[in-house]
Fold this sequence. Notes:
Blueprint: E1 4-8, H1 12-23, E2 27-32, H2 38-46, E3 50-53, H3 58-61, E4 66-69, H4 78-85, E5 90-91, H5 93-98, E6 104-109, H6 114-127, E7 132-136, H7 142-148, E8 153-157, H8 160-164, E9 173-176, H9 191-199, E10 210-214, H10 218-226, E11 232-237, E12 245-249, E13 252-257, E14 260-265, H11 274-289, H12 294-303, E15 312-317, E16 320-324, H13 331-339, E17 345-349, H14 362-368, E18 369-375, H15 380-386, E19 392-396, H16 399-409, E20 415-418, H17 431-443
Parallel strand pairs: 1-2, 1-4, 2-3, 4-5, 6-8, 6-9, 7-8, 9-10, 10-11, 11-12, 16-20, 17-18, 17-20, 18-19
Antiparallel strand pairs: 12-13, 13-14, 15-16
Domain Mur ligase central: 108-287
Domain Mur ligase C-terminal: 309-422
Subcellular location: Cytoplasm
Amino acid sequence: MKKKIVILGGGESGVGTAILAKKEGYKIWLSDKGKIKEKYKNVLEHLEIDWEEEKHTESQIFDADVVMKSPGIPDTVPMIKALRAKGIPVISEIEFAAQYTSAVIVGITGSNGKTTTTKLTHHILKDGGLQVGMAGNVGDSFAKQVAETNAGYYVLELSSFQLDGIEKFRPHIAVLTNITPDHLDRYEYKFENYIEAKFRITKNQTKDDYFIYDADDEVITNWLKTNKIEAQLLPFSLERKLENGAYLENDTIIIKTENTELTMATSDLTLQGKHNTKNAMAAATVAKLLKIRKNTIRESMESFQGVEHRLEKVLKINNVQYINDSKATNVNATYYALESMEGQTVWILGGVDKGNVYDELLPLVNEKVKAIICLGVDNTKIMNSFGNCVETLIETQSMSEAVKMAYRLSEKGDTVLLSPACASFDLFENYEDRGRQFKEAVRNL
């Protein structure tokens, strides 16, 4: 008897899972409550996979041996609860795909910095000559890559939602960049639930595996005091010298693992800012564990081009620098952005609030921000938080309007920063769409 897999969601992870499940001989039913994009329908048709859109046929779904749900579907949805009550396993694409590869897996999670760290790690490993795939929240789906390529290594960017759906998934190297309140709407507004989700990345690791983490992050270090991890711990820190792991001394990164040392000047990194020094430490530690040559690691760090929509310099107009940081979808990411600003800043922010608390931004706003432009359907919370900090606070409803306003308010030597601190779904498709609209509006000035 063929096992039956039901796939909920017909996006990148759903269709990737379908491709792999087909290869592994499953009977497949794919169901999406919304509309499925044409490019994905074409793949499903080509592979002769049964699918439906804009509905969920329960008789088909409850007949499953296993269910893969896309990360966008919360665990609290009645159907997911009903499936679990019936004892039908509900897993993530990451869990499903990992069973079908013997590749070495590097899993990277954290509230911020995970995309940069993932791309940087992939960049170094590729430069080091490894057959390496990059998946998770970036690139083609992990399942699709497992089905179609035979990479010996995978670097996976993992969100808490993807980690919620794992049972046996075990990365050889796990990286936790930091933990700050985010997505609390999905975790009953309990920070501890979100923390537990992030630490799932290490739950199946053994003493032969590695756990790389930010030793300056109190949330992480406090959790480690009361919970035992099997993996070998490799911390990184900007604040103190470490016996094992990565630290900073006189603007030089020093990485110590397995009795060997790698050093690198921070001035050689293409990515500037404290948070990027940490991302570089994490990525270089991974590369060192995987025996990439020291020179290759240094050269890769110098040639890395950064991530679109993350502190991306767009244009200078009348000596005003426009910066696209649309990927900053939470307060902590925006904190890093404001911290790295020099000179006066016109700040564009707003969108869908995920339970944000703006207090930690107040000192930076007082110091660096001359005007705030709100870009969201409901800006009340932002107005209340920053109304007393800046002289100019304006509401806008479209990107072109926000950018034109910023152009008027900025003077020579200023920076215009899009760093929303919020999700984008009220006015845009996603943060990429928001970032592209910003860049287009700037180019049209």
